[in-house]
Amino acid sequence: MHLLQNLSRRDGVLILIGASCVYILTTFLHRGFDSMPSIVINSGLPTYHTPAPILDLGFAKLPETGIIAHAPGWTLFRNLYMSNGTLFLLSSNFSDFPEIRMMTSTGLPAYNTPENIALREPTKQDMDFISPEEAEAHWGGHAQDGERNRIWTVEGNTMLFNDPSQFLDHYYHFVAELLVGARAFIYGAFNPTSRLSLAKDASTPELHPTFNPLPSVYEPPSFSRAIFIHAESYGWRDKPGFNSFVLRSAFPSLTIEVASDWADRVNATAPPKAIDKDAVQHSRANDDDNDSRRAWHFPIALLTDRSAAFRGESCGSRTQRTASEAWEYMVDQGGIDLVGTWWNNVREAVWRFAGVKKQVFHSRRRPDEVNDSANENLQMKLPIPENIVITYVSRQEVRRHLIPEDHDALVDALRNLVKRKKVEEGKDWELNIVRPEMFSKDGQIQLIAKSTILLGVHGNGLTHLVFMKPSQVSAVIEIFYPGGFAHDYEWTTRALGMRHFTVWNDTYFTRPNEPSIGYPEGFQGTSIPVHGETVAQLIEDRLEGRL
Ligand SMILES: *[C@@H]1O[C@H](CO)[C@@H](O)[C@H](O)[C@H]1NC(C)=O
Ligand SMILES: *[C@@H]1O[C@H](CO)[C@@H](O)[C@H](O)[C@H]1NC(C)=O
Ligand SMILES: *[C@@H]1O[C@H](CO)[C@@H](O)[C@H](O)[C@H]1NC(C)=O
Ligand SMILES: *[C@@H]1O[C@H](CO)[C@@H](O)[C@H](O)[C@H]1NC(C)=O
Ligand SMILES: *[C@@H]1O[C@H](CO)[C@@H](O)[C@H](O)[C@H]1NC(C)=O
Ligand SMILES: *[C@@H]1O[C@H](CO)[C@@H](O)[C@H](O)[C@H]1NC(C)=O
């Protein structure tokens, strides 16, 4: 029996509809952010009908590398190549490229010794320039024989993280530095308001099936993958598990590759091993080892490197925050505002995942409507909080912590404050005194999402500030051993448009009068003093708009 003869007309129509659906789906799935100008290369081959103009580079001149945006440690490339472990910048004129040491390093763990600093200076093995002629000789196919260029495009947009696990496996460094910095940089680089003016390249929304909410405000093109060049699977995961929680919930489509995956790509483009004499006799290609060379091509790649960021002025001399390089550069370019609008979609994605119930999200204002030069009262542009929630993250169970009596007195002072507000002014201020381990991940995010004030001793527990909802009075209050200060949470709070206060027992500081960095004896100890009444007064003044 012939199958076809048994098919009715109706079946035929159904098959056709089914086939069209498959076709439409697959073509949608294959369309990513098209970074290339729409040049059509005439290869002499038949042209295919495709919904998006696809630029076939198989027989084309190899496209040159371009820098879309660069700050120390943060570089967004167009057409970056990799072969045998070396990132290649393909160009006929290198004079306009940033210094290589400001883009990358050897990716070794960082220690503050002259030997280690020298070992982290990048070599030609890490990154190198290549001229179009050399690239053609290495990777160009013999078009006359129908051979395509020996370059494999890693489609979509790629994040290349060049850091070892030394800092990646900490919640603060992963989320509040790497992700915050990457978000600020990508958001700013593609923002139509930025002076980098890449608006014409921004992706247009397309029909594709998704359960993820579609942002109603500008959202930069999404990234397909993150590659941790020097870290293995557990090298980018923190013990409590927040790194993966945040990464997966905020970027559910992101694919992760780690060091051994990168090694695959390195090995696959490594030159062949020297062939032994006898074998050479029979070798077809003994006169031309160029023909076995290959490369990977990244149409859009964001390369980040911690050591290179520290070579920058902002990170190296002022903040010690790698993200500050990305952030300051994009603020200067007009790509991001000073009230953290650029972080909203990430925060809200994590909230939604964690089951934050009442999603009163940010005002749908476009970032360009914020007048950043009217800096002083910027936070007043944020919403008024619906409820006042004070959250004190206690560290009394872990190593660095308050003098036990001072902790008790602080708790009393906070309770009295909330009671007095209720009795005297009828105000319902909520107070939470918590150890994060008491809650599930969802619970921690739910609590922080409603917190107006986050209070705690300097430490990782304050990293959750990135998921606080910024409001006119939101603030982070960080207790240090008197004389001690570090920029971790201070810079991060400020970069997201909120206020930060440093408490030294019975005094406090805020920008522009924040102390300079200091790690006095006692900084890491278990006898950090704090005067509870001072903190309670600070909180009240802040929430009543007096500060
Ligand atoms: C390939 O990389 C190795 C180091 O991993 C290096 O020794 C070798 O010289 C490289 N080969 C070429 C052709 O660049
Ligand atoms: C390379 O670029 C620089 C800056 O754009 C320019 O001044 C120089 O003439 C160029 N050199 C060549 C060889 O084209
Ligand atoms: C890559 O090649 C090196 C050297 O030949 C080898 O030690 C390593 O196991 C290879 N890695 C992978 C992921 O294949
Ligand atoms: C191989 O490439 C080099 C450039 O790196 C070139 O000088 C050499 O002539 C090429 N060899 C062959 C046989 O094409
Ligand atoms: C921004 O604010 C500054 C200072 O208040 C003012 O001089 C400037 O005109 C404002 N710019 C815009 C575009 O509103
Ligand atoms: C902390 O401040 C209180 C109130 O001013 C003071 O009595 C106490 O001695 C201070 N503690 C330290 C260690 O300075």
UniProtKB/TrEMBL annotation:
Pfam families: Glyco_transf_61. The chain crosses the membrane at residues 12-33. The keyword Zinc does not apply. One of its GO terms (molecular function) is protein O-acetylglucosaminyltransferase activity. Keywords: Glycoprotein, Glycosyltransferase, Membrane, Transferase, Transmembrane, Transmembrane helix. GO terms for cellular component: endoplasmic reticulum; membrane. Residues 380-471 form the Glycosyltransferase 61 catalytic domain. This is Glycosyltransferase 61 catalytic domain-containing protein. It comes from Crucibulum laeve.
